[in-house]
Amino acid sequence: MRTAIFSTKKYERMMLDELNASHDHEFVYFETALGPGTASLAAGFPAVSVFVNDSVDAHVLSHLATGGTKLVATRSTGFNHIDLKAARELGVRVVRVTHYSPNSVAEFAVGLLLALNRKIHKAYNRTREGNFELDGLMGFDLVGRTVAVIGTGNIGTIFARIMIGFGCTVLGFDVHRSPEFERIGGRYVEAEGIEEADIISLHCPLTPDTHHIVNARALARVKRGTVLINTSRGGLVDTEAAIEALKTGQLGGLAIDVYEQEANLFFKDLSSTVIPDDVIQRLVSFPNVILTGHQAFFTREALGTILETTLASISDFAAGRPLTNEIKM
Ligand code: NAD
What we know:
The chain is α/β, with parallel strands linked by helices. Helix content is 34%, strand content 15%.
């Protein structure tokens, strides 16, 4: 099937071309993101594939539908960038990658926690400069600490299992209880239980209910010095409130792989430009903040499954088969 693939990088194109040998689709790659200014590029493509920072709102979908697009395949689990209601009204079906190595994100969240707590990023830079001083690098033992997992789905449960392995007490916060989370030793608590946590890790999707779930009010309630890890979606955290909490020491550290305004920054090399986003510049100026550019999913296993699932969905659509990964409202 003729498919316009937006926001593609070299590493994806190589893998897609390899995998496509057994599907035989006609792919046209666009490095640019899909959005109001680029939707016209998709005219005449029955299938369009997008990534997390493409904007697939009602306006863009209406352009796509007019141009003959019938399928949008997002190469992600999250789908907060797609207006599902508009898609349904326009007769555009939407598929996602329901399941791919949740270990990739859970393991990265643990990596961020370890780096932030034990200041591994600082030590790396110091020793390259011949500085073997330990001053300023002290962390804390994870054993015996309390970890709050917000969202105990696929990723949150694996993150919980790893933290239990470290000897932590793991508290779960979710609107649906997972038997697997409880089986591995996690314990569900009510909202006020957050006050016990030394570490909070976010693993719930971004929805109208979870937007700014970490705001000034929530941050005022956490234990002083709590460490916050966000590998889920930037919009879960009110960044300005997090900055204030870092300034007062209420938040002891922040590690984020996602950022609310990431669409204009992430997945691009902006090292020779002046970055006009003052909030992110303020964030990276803190010694107790680590920021990565939405790379938690980025393992060979995860990317392989993401692309293979996307191709299989496009093949199913082309053959008129049921779409097992369709997002239904
Ligand atoms: P999942 O659907 O298996 O789990 C999400 C969990 O969040 C569910 O148990 C759900 O009940 C819970 N939840 C929903 N609303 C909630 C609320 N208001 N409060 C608490 N919990 C709530 O999803 P997953 O595969 O574990 O992925 C989780 C998120 O991770 C995705 O939505 C996506 O945003 C993010 N993600 C990030 C990356 C990355 O590279 N950084 C990659 C993949 C996924």
